[in-house]
Write a structure and sequence with these properties.
four-stranded parallel β-sheet, globular, alpha/beta, 12% strand, Rossmann fold
Length: 352
């Protein structure tokens, strides 16, 4: 079984979080006021953390939080991360910037290393599912004693506590807005949010009114999570919102949660119209292309899947795992990419 370097680890933690947490809310929350005012960030339980000044030493729990900060232009403030992105996982200059960030752990940052990092803020993308590495997650008192403010990337940390399925990118946009305010980059955050909204609005103009019964069914094949037992994207995972906004029907949208292992017999029974060959970026175009090829060949040669409608008709999408299931600006790009493949005529007409 292949194991994804960082996305798969998040999925595994998410599985442990089923039923954890509590007090969650679908309200993305608000941050800050006018220039110079304190900035407030809430966690999954609604507890408030106040910032009277802009943090200068930030530690991120994983690549999702790191990418958001890099896009905001404050990569120089990040002094460490856990779950670092694989080479090539980020596009353009972001990849090179990510290579400059010290790696505190290839998985969850150990408690003592986090507390001794010298950070003034820790951005936690795991929330209730965070096992905290060696020694467990620091307590509120330990964070306070170390001078570290502990805040959450709510689009991922609070996913398991959502009251409703994820069908939009509002929590992602709220995170961008919040961390823009926290880091003094509200203008840049507004630009990122506006860019996402333009793309999603264009897609919704094209496919938003397509009745559910007429939408093609869609299976996210997480090849790097392993082929022995497929890992389903459930309805509280951000990938479900991406698929829904693109005008497709996630075949596991009836699964309440974030990720869940299922059986191939479940996939066969749902017989999807389209399959996303989801692989992580391998660090080079050739290696990533080979991974996509391998995923397709596996489906075409496996007795349990070779007769699926999507396989027989060759309806595959080659879209990376990261930009689909890891909350961020790239989610809007994936919405656009999926919709263009499923509804080429409608999307082109909407863009004119």
């Amino acid at each position: 079984m292949r194991v994804r370097v960082w996305c798969g680890a998040m999925a595994a933690l998410a599985l442990l979080a089923t039923g954890c947490g509590g007090g969650g809310s679908d309200d993305p929350g608000k941050a800050g006021g006018s220039a110079g005012d304190p900035v407030r960030a809430t966690d999954c339980k609604g507890r408030v953390t106040t910032f009277d000044s802009t943090p200068t030493k930030i530690v991120t729990s994983n690549a999702a939080a790191l990418e958001l900060l890099l896009r905001l232009g404050v990569g120089d403030k990040v002094i460490g991360t856990g779950f670092p992105p694989g080479k090539g996982a980020f596009k353009g200059d972001l990849d090179a910037q990510a290579r400059e960030v010290p790696v505190l752990s290839k998985a969850v940052i150990p408690k003592e290393k986090l507390l001794g990092s010298g950070a003034d803020v820790f951005i936690d993308a795991f929330g209730p599912m965070n096992m905290g590495g060696a020694g467990g997650l620091p307590t509120d008192e330990e964070f306070k004693a170390a001078g570290i403010k502990h805040i959450s990337l709510k689009s991922t940390a609070c996913a398991s506590t959502r009251k409703k399925p994820a069908t939009d990118l509002d929590t992602v946009k709220a995170d961008i807005t919040t961390f823009g305010a926290v880091t003094g980059k509200s203008d840049r955050a507004a630009e990122l949010v506006a860019s996402m909204e333009r793309k999603v609005t264009s897609v919704q103009k094209a496919v938003g009114k397509v009745p559910a019964k007429d939408r093609p069914s869609y299976f996210f094949f997480d090849y790097d999570a392993g082929t022995k037992q497929p890992m389903a994207i459930c309805n509280k995972q951000i990938g479900n919102a991406v698929i829904t906004l693109a005008g497709a029907r996630n075949i596991f949208a009836d699964c309440a949660g974030t990720f869940r292992p299922v059986g191939w017999e479940d996939v066969v029974a749902k017989n999807p119209d389209w399959i996303q060959l989801a692989v992580r970026n391998r660090g080079s175009e050739a290696e990533t292309r080979k991974a996509f090829d391998d995923a397709r060949k596996w489906l075409e040669n496996n007795p349990a899947t070779k007769e699926l409608k999507a396989v027989k008709e060759g309806k595959f999408l080659r879209i990376g795992s990261e930009e689909t299931t890891i909350a961020g600006v790239g989610n809007a790009d994936t919405v656009e990419e999926i919709a263009t493949a499923l509804y080429p005529g409608k999307v082109r007409a909407a863009e004119q």
